[in-house]
Automatic annotation (TrEMBL):
Disordered as annotated region, ranges: 1-33
Signal peptide: none
Compositionally biased residues, Basic and acidic residues: 1-12
Family: Belongs to the ClpS family.
Gene3D superfamilies from the UniProt entry: 3.30.1390.10
Protein name: ATP-dependent Clp protease adapter protein ClpS
Known role: Involved in the modulation of the specificity of the ClpAP-mediated ATP-dependent protein degradation.
NCBIfam families cross-referenced by the UniProt entry: PRK00033.1-2, PRK00033.1-5
């Protein structure tokens, strides 16, 4: 069904829609024309991602760091131990990559628990490139 036929069909099926002006040939206008159909495509942007990092210090017990990684970052004991050792040896380690709100929440949870246990553990987030 051509666009003009479709619009004519819609007008006929809905008596509230205005019809074509008197004397207009079927299909509209002077019999020559182009119907243009545009379709808007919505492009969604992926959210920015943030890396959550643990920073090494000389006072926070290693077992506490492993516990944090298991509890807040859903790491297995083996994964958590590997990350903790990396933090200990390199000074910084990646806990995970998250959207802004999730990363912000995880950083706050880690800092809160460390503070309650009187550990100077630092956790930060940085935007991924």
């Amino acid at each position: 069904m051509a666009m003009s036929e479709l619009s004519e069909h819609v007008r006929m099926s809905d008596p509230n829609l205005p019809g074509p002006p008197a004397g207009t040939p079927p299909g509209g206008g002077d019999g020559i024309g182009v119907d243009i159909v545009t379709q808007t495509r919505i492009k969604t942007k992926k959210p920015s991602l943030y890396r959550v990092l643990l920073l090494n210090d000389d006072y926070t017990p290693m077992e506490f760091v492993v516990y944090i990684l298991e509890r807040y970052f859903n790491r297995s004991r083996e994964q958590a131990t590997r990350i903790m050792l990396h933090v200990h040896q390199k000074g910084v380690g990646l806990c995970g990559v998250y959207t802004y709100e999730v990363a912000e929440t995880k950083v706050a949870q880690v800092l809160d628990l460390a503070k309650r246990h009187e550990h100077p553990l630092q956790c930060v987030m940085e935007k991924e490139d």
